[in-house]
Write a structure and sequence with these properties.
This protein has 23 helices and 20 strands. It has 624 residues and is α+β, with helices and mostly antiparallel strands. It folds into four domains: 212 residues, Nucleotidyltransferase, domain 5 (2-Layer Sandwich); 108 residues, Taq DNA Polymerase, Chain T, domain 4 (Up-down Bundle); 125 residues, Alpha-Beta Plaits; 110 residues, no CATH class. Strands 1-2-5-4-3-6-7 form a seven-stranded mixed β-sheet, with helices on both faces. A four-stranded antiparallel β-sheet has the order 16-17-13-20. Helix 5 crosses helix 9 and helix 20 crosses helix 21. The relative contact order is 0.09. The structure holds a DNA duplex (9 and 15 nucleotides). One of its GO terms (biological process) is DNA-templated DNA replication. Pfam families: DNA_pol_A, DNA_pol_A_exo1. It comes from Streptomyces finlayi. InterPro entries: 3'-5'_exonuclease_dom, DNA-dir_DNA_pol_A_palm_dom, DNA/RNA_pol_sf, DNA_polymerase_A, RNaseH-like_sf, RNaseH_sf.
DNA sequence: AAGTTCACG
DNA sequence: ACGTACGTGAACTTT
């Protein structure tokens, strides 16, 4: 047995690294009697589903000691780790979804077995403060949390190991796979991580108590994390033949327009300086500036120069500038091939699946994000081309999606108790001649203000005003977004405030509360939402975005309880994407709608399903 | 590492 | 009194 003595917050701790069968028996005798163990794994990297991926080490610990089990050695080491993994009633894990999926894929310990026994200290910490240190927060990594809550002298275990990797001629990318399991720094830090996790947990509990973070919210977040890990494990099936075609086509398109751009002296279309210089030389005038003071040459600037509207359709207002068009097309093809098509091909697993990394509590508002191999929340939606690469789980499956209807506006009506808005949403039988596609809050508002004569343009203006309320936008921004004049918007916003006076009152109240509590506002679920001092106006948006996220979270729990988890593929803010057998798809879609239908403080929250064909792209236009 | 652009809800 | 559209992830260029 190798042992390391170390100090944590002035107290001695011991790290044990078993070497023999006898050492492993001592470990098991100790671990068997522990009601709760902190747990961590070390692996060859982050790409859990790639071939050749290995689980190297599993660590177990308490506030006083840690045991570092080298799983990679096989035999009795594997047996000992699995014995405790199956048996211990409760685990503390920092960022549990990663370790759940590692153990599920590489240690034969199912997610379904681990998740109900897990407390995730990252979830607890994020509910206290979701901000990273750069944003003025504590951070949500084990290192900043340990330094803040446990021991100011806590080492940067990951950072220091990276330095060790370099001294061994390895890199951050190769070090985790290449470091010798006997390396003392590797073993010491592997052990310290679980000791810090064990010490973090009671401090976080005390903070929750002090700040009023509800235990029900903690449980709810664990359930959401479990469901999202389930979706990550399943992944999405790719049509690899199509991915290859897509890559070829987009590269050709890019090349074609790069050649055109080069004729005008632009050899890098992504260089704003080159593009603006060449356009000026062609006699174009550029007026908009970037925050940094350079001339702006983004899509919004280039489209009019190319005589194209926002949907890239020819306007006929001027002679198109060939360079502007070439830059637009080359940049779009380039982005689509590198950010999407190439990444699909590079990250596909041996079964032809791609796995999203779902961060269930990423944004300050609690919103989820999807990062890494497959940023599925940000695939182009204006065209089916990219999403066409993703297909149903089985040949007889089709893709579907269920969206909340105008969720931000409904949440606003509910939270601010907006009487006339609520009355509109609550109308059980909206006149189909007025609302042929179902009730529409923006047309409702237009009619409330303009009467029966309200037009589609009125609708657009009041939709802008509504979004301005939800986002906290000013008159000029709303005008720019809607294309209406500032005078028109100013009048519309004033009328909006007249018919929905509760919004302004709620906004003032929330801003006052936020300031009084140090610019941290508390959502309806008790979630703490840190708000920058100079951005108090954003409190309405924080409340709405956060409540909408929690409504989706509740809907996801309803879906799981209804047996729909196996069909769920992705959460996308106000939408769930699913893959289901074609023969049952209509019934399944109805079930999804039912799970997303609920009441929020007297406002009905509703959802509508859309069924496509075999590919995800089929929901976005003409693809098969 | 910062700045710019572009993809999403 | 004034004025701020909200939240993300990722690639590429320039520094």
């Amino acid at each position: 047995m190798i042992t390391y003595s170390h100090g944590v917050n002035g107290e001695p701790v011991t790290i044990f690294v078993p070497e023999t069968d006898g050492d492993l028996r001592t470990f098991m005798d100790w671990a068997r009697s522990q009601p709760v163990l902190a747990l961590d794994t070390e692996t060859t990297g982050l790409d859990i589903f790639a071939s050749g991926y290995r689980l190297r080490t599993v660590q177990f610990g308490t506030t006083r000691e840690a045991w570092v089990i080298h799983y990679e050695l096989g035999g009795r080491f594997v047996e000992a780790a699995q014995y405790i993994l199956k048996r211990c009633p409760r685990f503390l894990i920092h960022n549990a979804p990663f370790d759940w999926l590692v153990l599920d894929a590489h240690a034969n310990i199912p997610l379904e077995s681990m998740a109900p026994r897990t407390t995730d200290t990252k979830i607890k910490a994020t509910l206290i403060d979701p901000r990273q240190p750069q944003e003025g927060g504590i951070g949500t990594g084990l290192k900043p949390l340990s330094a803040h809550y446990v021991d100011p002298q806590a080492p940067d275990t990951q950072g220091d190991l990276t330095a060790v990797f370099r001294s061994l001629g390895l890199t951050k990318a190769t070090g985790w796979a290449g470091i010798d399991l006997r390396h003392p720094t590797y073993n010491l830090y592997a052990g310290l991580d679980v000791i810090y996790t064990a010490r973090l947990n009671p401090v976080l509990d005390a903070e929750h108590e002090r700040l009023g973070v509800r235990p029900a919210l903690v449980d709810y977040e664990h359930e959401i994390a479990h469901m999202c890990a389930h979706m990550q494990r399943a992944g999405l099936v790719l049509d690899l033949e199509y991915v290859d075609t897509l890559r070829r086509m987009l590269r050709e398109e890019e090349e074609k327009y790069l050649t055109v751009a080069a004729r005008y002296g632009v050899d890098s279309v992504n260089s704003g300086a080159q593009v603006s210089e060449a356009l000026l030389a062609m006699g174009e005038t550029l007026t908009e500036q970037t925050d940094g003071g350079a001339l702006k040459v983004d899509k919004a600037v280039l489209l009019p120069l190319a005589d194209l509207d926002r949907d890239w359709v020819s306007i006929g207002a001027r002679a198109p500038n060939p360079l502007a068009e070439a830059v637009l097309r080359a940049k779009r093809a380039g982005k689509w091939v590198t950010s999407y098509a190439d990444k699909f091909a590079a990250n596909v697993d041996p079964n032809g699946c791609i796995h999203p990394t779902i961060n269930t509590l990423q944004a300050r508002t609690g919103r989820m994000s999807i990062t890494g191999d497959f940023a599925a929340q940000t695939l182009p939606s204006s065209d089916w081309m990219i999403r066409r690469a993703v297909v149903g789980d089985h040949p007889d499956h089709i893709f579907g999606s269920v969206d909340f209807q105008a969720i931000e506006m409904r949440v606003l009506a509910a939270l601010a108790d907006v009487k006339r808005m609520k009355a509109g949403f609550c109308d059980p039988d909206p006149d189909p001649t007025l609302y042929p596609d179902g009730f529409d809050i923006h047309m409702y508002t237009a009619r409330l203000i303009k009467g029966a004569a309200a037009t589609g343009r009125d609708r657009k203006v009041f939709k802008g005003a509504g979004f301005g309320k939800v986002y906290g936008g000013g008159i000029s921004t709303i005008a720019r977004q809607t294309g209406a004049t500032e005078a028109e918007i100013a009048r519309a916003v004033a009328e909006y405030d007249r018919v929905f006076p509760e919004i302004k009152r709620a906004s003032s109240r929330w801003q006052r509360e936020a300031r009084a509590t140090g610019m941290v506002t508390v959502s309806v679920t008790g979630r703490r939402l840190p708000l920058d001092r100079h951005r108090a106006y954003a409190v309405v948006n924080y409340q709405c975005q956060s409540a909408a996220r929690d409504v989706l979270g509740q809907a996801m729990i309803n879906m799981r309880d209804a047996g729909l988890l196996e069909y769920m593929k992705l959460p996308i803010h106000d939408e769930i994407v699913f893959s289901a057998p074609k023969s049952d798809a209509k019934d399944i879609a109805r079930e999804f709608e039912r799970c997303m239908t609920m009441d929020l403080y007297g406002v009905p929250v509703t959802a509508e399903a859309d069924l496509g064909a075999h590919s995800w792209g089929s929901l976005y236009g003409a693809a098969a």
